[in-house]
Q: What sequence folds into this?
């Protein structure tokens, strides 16, 4: 709890000092890079200071060009770990309520993150369409296709929105396996424990080779590829990786 309090207090101070001038800079220059990297590097600095080590593997598998990064979601701490591991600026679809926070919400908008109202289907579709257009224009995205955090660390079923976006934008999907985050910070807990999180980028899958009629097949492939990249304790119960005995 003390580690979480430490991060909350000092990260809040950091945001209040750095956020407003960078928001103004972004409005003037239309360049989101400084506020994005200041946010990511700031969060990761305090995460490491709290005793959490993030190990990254497989960056050589990330293809050039626009990508849709697809990650599993087990804990509040895996978001900064995954985003911090991606070696390029990406945008994220985030729940709308996060954009109501003072300074933070404006920073998300300045970084070109897109709010999603999960309670309104029409609004959610509009947000997905906006993200798809952004990907066609060269903006890489990160999405969590499970839709919510796993209760026990095991990979859950995927919704089809992510692969639909990728097919419509004609981009490559990069599965991202995040291991150990649920042990560092348990779901619905504020206790942050020291430990190691592994973020591994797996082999990309070209969504341009699939039609919308094949989105179920692509969704299963992405899900199973990510599941195979996770440790056994985080795979779906009963999952057997292709080629396993």
A:
């Amino acid at each position: 709890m003390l580690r979480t309090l430490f991060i909350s207090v000092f990260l809040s101070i950091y945001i209040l000092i750095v956020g407003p001038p960078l928001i103004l800079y972004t409005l003037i220059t239309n360049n989101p890079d400084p506020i994005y990297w200041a946010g990511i590097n700031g969060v990761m600095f305090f995460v490491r200071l709290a005793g959490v080590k993030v190990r990254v593997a497989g960056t050589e598998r990330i293809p050039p060009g626009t990508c849709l990064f697809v990650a599993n979601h087990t804990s509040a701490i895996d978001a900064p770990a995954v985003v911090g591991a991606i070696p390029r600026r990406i945008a994220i679809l985030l729940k709308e309520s996060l954009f109501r926070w003072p300074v933070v919400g404006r920073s998300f908008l300045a970084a070109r993150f897109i709010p999603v109202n999960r309670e309104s289907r029409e609004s959610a579709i509009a947000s997905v369409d906006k993200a798809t257009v952004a990907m066609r224009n060269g903006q890489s995205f990160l999405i969590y296709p499970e839709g919510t955090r796993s209760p026990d660390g095991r990979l859950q079923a995927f919704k089809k929105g992510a692969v639909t976006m990728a097919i419509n934008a004609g981009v490559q999907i990069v599965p991202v396996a995040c291991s150990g985050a649920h042990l560092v910070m348990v779901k619905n807990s504020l206790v942050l424990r020291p430990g190691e999180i592994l973020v591994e980028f797996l082999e990309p899958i070209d969504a341009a080779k699939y039609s919308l009629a094949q989105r179920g097949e692509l969704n299963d492939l992405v899900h199973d590829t990510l599941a195979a990249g996770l440790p056994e304790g985080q795979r779906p119960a009963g999952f057997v990786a292709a080629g396993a005995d």
Notes: Residues 118 and 150 are 17 Å apart (CA to CA). The chain has eight helices and eight strands.
